[in-house]
Amino acid sequence: MATLEEARAALERIATRLTDVNPDELAKHVVERTVSCHVPDLNLVFITRIHAGGLDSFEVAESPNGAQVRLTVNSDDLVALADDELGVGKAWATGRLKVEASLGDLLRLRKIL
């Protein structure tokens, strides 16, 4: 099980990847949404906001607080996703990553992940 610091660092690495996406492409596929990442084995929830400029900093929260896009992933899988040892598609297909979002948001996220 990863630590809080390792989980936060993994999320920051994932957020940094969005800066590598062409800004015009990002703006075309992203609308402003709140995003939560629940890490159940650490009993933590991180909250951020995604927008055309990327992701804001992740903050620890008590609950997803009505986030429009809700991710659930255990800490080790989160680190593996951040380190490209686990693909998003495989993690989702095997139930290691759960995504709750509207169909429109899922289609937009698919374009940038």
TrEMBL record:
Looking up SUPFAM superfamilies in the UniProt record yields: SCP-like (SSF55718)
Q: Which residues form the SCP2 domain?
A: 17-112
The protein depicted here goes by the name: SCP2 sterol-binding domain-containing protein
Taxonomic source organism: Actinoallomurus acaciae
